[in-house]
Amino acid sequence: MKTGVCYYPEHWPEARWVVDAAHMRNLGLSMVRIGEFAWSRLEPAAGQYQFDWLTRAIDTLSDAGLEVILGTPTATPPAWLIRNHPQVLAVDENGQVRDFGSRRHYCFSSELYREHCERIVTELATRYGRHDGITAWQTDNEYGCHSTSISYSSAALSAFQKWCERQYNGIDALNLAWGNVFWSMEYSNFSEIGLPVGTVTESNPAHRMAFWRFSSTQITSFNKLQVDIIKKHAPGRDVVHNFMGNFVEFDHFEVADDLDVASWDNYPLGFLTRDGTNPEDQKTFLRTGHPDSSAFHHDLYRACGKGRMWLMEQQPGPVNWAPFNPAPLPGMVRLWGWEAFAHGAELVSYFRWRQLPFGQEQMHAALLLPDGRDDDAAHEVKQLAEDIRKVLSLNINVDVSPAPVALVFDYAGDQAARIQQPDGQNYDPLVFMQNIYSVVRQLGVRVDIVPTTATMDDYKLIILANCSVSDGALAMKLKQSNAHILMFPRTGSKTTECAIPDQLPPGDFQQLIDLKVTRVETLPKAIRMTTKNNVQVVDWRERVEATFPAEDAFEDGWGFHFQQKQVHYINACPDRASLLSLLQARLNECGIHSLNLGDGLRIMQRGELSMAFNYGPDEVLVTEEIQQHFCNENPSRVILGQPLLQAGDLCAWTGSATESTSTDG
Ligand code: GAL
């Protein structure tokens, strides 16, 4: 794993570049991302290019021994482009044009904007494609950030109408598929179709689902346009995009399909305070981040990148964009880097090199203070690079091997569950999914996140938690596998058109288990329901009709937990404690040894290397028993840190027979 940093040479005097480059090397950094917001400096007026400064910046950095990742600047179209062509701007759900003055103000559907992107990316790729110092390219920056996946512009409208025309065999087919007879929503031709926005009450779920699929496809084709140009002129270079955390507004598997590596931007404290739904967790993990949030995304994006994952931006100190922005506990910057390594990251790059005293992000910490001296993260980043080098020099096998458990992730399924839920405001499909991931990880078991199209032959347990779209191919694949299958509420509850399947939920997944969901109810936060076996249920419950008895039941007679051979259907949302017992039982059943690590301790394995991370507020001892559990009961040898972990601390050990060399961290 390499370490790197995001750098903006255009923000600093040129004389400083060489000083910065040397200091980057001094901190053990070997990659540097530049250029992704520099359009106004590359093309200050239409067709007038200024590449000399960029050439000098790339040369300075690569002469210092840094590999350059060059970003395309398409997230920030400059003022002249916007003022000359305001029709490229995106439009929000209130019909408001998203104007110039920050970033990401373009509409993915604007053909004219695509032409400008094609032009600037071609200029860059033809000039720098074969530059020895540039080893990777980043397309754009964080697709969808600031709610920009969807635009309601007239360009989007006409592209959507054409998309519908290609998808459906005539307007009658579309009317039938969307159920437009309801409320007289039928169209007589494709040009009558509008966008699902501004309607008096909710717009048709089928319409919204189609528009989501269309918008996701627009991002895929926008990205591919750039990838194709870069691939043509920059042979052998990795092409990446930096995706976001807790973000499901488009199908990331589809976009990543055209990339060499999926990279993502990790802000653990920002995510906790902005997205954390649980106030207790916010308190406990305020300065460490949720113990499973980074891990979840590492595993998700490793799947998107078909095994290749980078961290393009990693939080170095307080950020500026969450509702409140605490400072990380000392040691966390190093710990987050190690957690990324544990999940197979090839690069951890920090955002950003030096805190900027002007502009929107002046309150965002960096590796350096605005005055150019080291800030707290700098020494942790240096230590991380040294640690990794030392541990890898021991020649321990650190191959990332498949986990025993797979969690199937379906972006369309997530979306379908979001589009229509009968007042189920407490149920968020992503949060529910992350909760399951978190519980399995708390039980000391690794989880792979996989798309519905993955080969799943080698898993012992396969979990479906957001596959709400009925999927015959997936059902067939699962039927043929030897794995135990665990399905959660809403599995197969909608067709691809967001309608209830004819055979009732779980739709095609009835091939796996012979039951039907005949009623769903959603529950307010204050309500918990308890089963006879004391399972606590919150948020969502389903009534099931089955040809066999349930394992458990609610007081009112609704059955709970249906099992047929190796297949389980859990027809409600258990609270965390109940989820833990349920999952522990499933792991046992398929011969996976689990060990409850408690709230804050997490352990991850890579080949013969095991690593323990303390995200909790209290010290924890990684006992020999725990160490041995993770190295197949071989005697273990601690090779980094100490087993008594303070908050924010980590240690690593191996159970292999390698020579003992102490590398205390
Ligand atoms: C990311 C973005 C960066 C920067 C950073 C601040 O979302 O890609 O450009 O804005 O957040 O945390």
Give a concise summary.
This protein is α/β, with parallel strands linked by helices and 665 residues long. Among the domains are: 8-31 and 260-393, TIM Barrel, CATH 3.20.20.80; 405-589, Class I glutamine amidotransferase (GATase) domain (Rossmann fold, 3-Layer(aba) Sandwich); 601-654, Immunoglobulin-like (Sandwich).
Structure notes:
Helix content is 32%, strand content 18%. Among the domains are: 8-31 and 260-393, TIM Barrel (Alpha-Beta Barrel); 405-589, Rossmann fold (3-Layer(aba) Sandwich), CATH 3.40.50.880; 601-654, Golgi alpha-mannosidase II (Immunoglobulin-like, Sandwich). The protein is of the alpha/beta class. The longest helix is centred in the N-terminal third of the chain and has 29 residues, at 205-233. The model is unreliable at 657-665 (pLDDT under 50). Strand 1, helix 1 (14-26) and strand 2 (31-34) form a beta-alpha-beta unit. The strands form six sheets. The protein has an eight-stranded parallel barrel with strand order 1-2-3-4-5-6-7-8, surrounded by four helices. Strands 10-9-11-12-19-18 form a six-stranded mixed beta sheet. Beta-D-galactopyranose (GAL) is lined by residues 141-142, 145, 265, 267, 313, 319, 321, 351, 361, 364. Beta-D-galactopyranose binds at residues 141-142, 145, 265, 267, 313, 319, 321, 351, 361, 364.
